[in-house]
Amino acid sequence: MIIRKxxxxxxxxxxxxxxVAETIAHVGALLRPGITTEELDAAAGAFIRARGGIPTxxxxxxxxxxxxxxxxxVVVHGIPGAHVVREGDLVTIDVGVTLDGAIADSAYTFxxxxxxxxxxxxxxxxxxxxxxxxxxxxxxxxxxDISHAVQEVVEGAGFSVVRSLVGHGVGRxxxxxxxxxxxxxxxxxxxxxxxxxxxxxxxxTAGSSEVVVADDGWTxxxxxxxxxxxxxxxxxxxxxxxxxxxxxxxxxxxVRSSTFRP
Length: 262
Hints:
By secondary structure, the chain is α+β, with helices and mostly antiparallel strands. It has helices at residues 7-30, 37-50, 117-135, 143-156; strands spanning 54-55, 68-71, 74-76, 90-99, 102-112, 160-161, 167-169, 176-180, 197-200, 203-205, 211-213, 220-222, 228-230, 233-238, 241-244, 254-255. It contains four helices and 16 strands. Helix 3 (117-135) packs antiparallel against helix 4 (143-156).
């Protein structure tokens, strides 16, 4: 069942979304070679709680950490731990926050220091695909219009869409209807109407679209070891067009290297 939100609910989701965006920026500012993903997760959890929020991922279906951190070939749901960030890594920070009963969800893939030009192109294309999908999130369109727009950008650039992973409704619950695939035919799927709040999230790879799930039951990586990128926004469908509820707060694609000086 698709849950349409009242204007008041959308404002509450937007407040949660601002905290999500601030958390991503906070973690991005800490991201550097030598830091562990465990340290980044601890900082994220403390940041969210200090501002009255709850890390939505923590305990969700047994997930053990505050946020998801997915380096390099990990597409989504990387569990923070002993992994040490290195120069040239791609690191996705995926944050869900519950604030005053409302939930918002967003992800951003950072490049650490100097990254390979093809890795940078992967990041750029993933962001372009997200923008193309959001542009289709208007009253009267269908979910397939979003899906097709993402697919065209990604595959047109020679990259692959992970077909087994999808975006979703969000707001009252972490995952709601409808599913938002990153591929599909325009004019198909549920019709978009005012009050819907959805997470649009291209998950793309530099190689095959096939993925594997680790023994931990969470970590999903590319089957061929190729780099992955994941960008996500929570978006409200309004009479005036799509409204991004998780607007970015000063996050660049590249973060500091081991030789960075403030």
